[in-house]
Amino acid sequence: MMKKLFYLLVxxxxxxxxxxxxxxxSFNTYVNEWIYxxxxxxxxxxxDLPAFKKNAGKPVEYFETLLHHEDRFSAIxxxxxxxxxxxxxxxxxxxxxEYKLFLESTGSEKVICIVTFTKPxxxxxxxxxxxxxxxxxxxxxxxxxxxxxxxxxxxxxxTASVKIGFTVYSDGGYVNAGEKDLTKITNYKENPVYLDTxxxxxxxxxxxxxxxxxxxxxxxxxxxxxxxxxSLMGAFAAQDIAELVVDLRYNSGGMMSTAIHLGxxxxxxxDNSKVFxxxxxxxxxxxxxxxxxxxxKYSESPFVEYFTTSIKTGTTEVPVQSLGSKLKRxxxxxxxxxxxxxxxxxxxxKPYLPCVLIGDVTYGKNVGSIVINDDENKKNKYAFMxxxxxxxxxxxxxxxxTGFVPNVEVYDDLAHQLGDTREELLAAALAHITNGPSMxxxxxxxxxxxxxxxxxxxxxxxxxxxxxxxRER
Length: 473
Hints:
Blueprint: H1 2-11, H2 24-42, H3 59-65, E1 75-77, H4 80-87, E2 90-94, E3 97-103, E4 111-118, H5 123-126, E5 134-138, E6 141-142, H6 148-152, E7 161-170, E8 173-183, E9 185-189, E10 193-201, E11 204-211, H7 224-238, E12 243-247, H8 256-266, E13 275-280, H9 283-289, H10 292-297, E14 304-306, E15 310-313, E16 316-319, E17 330-334, H11 341-349, E18 355-359, E19 367-369, E20 372-373, E21 383-385, E22 387-392, E23 408-409, H12 424-435, H13 445-452, H14 457-467
Parallel strand pairs: 11-12, 12-17, 17-18, 18-23
Antiparallel strand pairs: 1-21, 2-9, 3-4, 4-5, 5-6, 5-7, 7-8, 10-11, 13-14, 13-22, 15-16, 19-22, 20-21
């Protein structure tokens, strides 16, 4: 379906470059016309676009003026090639860990950065940085509500290294705990399959998977990550697991094709006629997809996606390792960052088997986007990702625009490493498996205090938009 949409973007291009791009204003005018032209063709809310007027303003600012009031997700980027690398987990400058931001205390202007996980084969991992470590200073400067965005930019900018200052909590206050110089890795290839293990709980074997984003490979067409995920499911099946816990708490989405592959590994008895999702577009796209012109060129319907029984790589088809037929239910660990393709998998599986959600309310992204870049003018390096579709499951349900509410609410405590059976979300899932929901212990009050101290959602969204490329499609 993505290939069909990319083809259509070329069809809908309404003009060619006839401006002098050496002049900033005329170049901006060209870019803004290019943005508007494509938005008019494919944007989900194109019927509500303002009337076109020539505009020589900065493209990033112009793009924002076109967005519908319901649109929280469409985004524009100044470097198409860098965007495509990040969408496949190739990070131009990788610091080696992910993190959450909190106020040091309620009402404080000081900000602390708590590590959520470190990445394999990075100096951060080698230096012993781990989940739960607290960072308060970057390059010698204390993080505050006024400077944290600027300081955190050093994690992803072109500088070769960053000095990070650590803090520990002691006797009711924060105490400096030394500094480390971290060298960043250029073009780091991050594998989304972060952690997998099998636990024996009572008389049951429980599979556990931490899966951090949806991409088939590192952009090389090998399907390496999807094939690794498939092999892992085969290994779980070979070990005869009775329960599965899929940790998506930090998974903000990715490619729909990989979402279909993962869903196919988890659905009972997958076949090519079982509906994974239905898709809704604007009137322009709907009319085109229903046209004789489109149907003459393509046999597949863009309005429905089915589960699959194989993963295609080149001329080879690898059978999907089906685990769903062994399971009576699936546990998903969720958080505020669980979004897009993660929610699509949960929504797509719900009609077929019980899905038990443990953690926090998910992000609430029941719409999808595509990447648009300018193939006709190489001087235009901008790319943008407009929302072009809304998706539904087999039962035509898409009722999670404010997020899925978990069956069991548990806070991400950050005090134990991922995979440690004492870690709050995993512990809750294992307790549910063993004794049922009544045996899950109460939320740790210290974890609740941390959650309450988190920076406002609006500031977090701004930070993500400015400093991190959104992997969601």
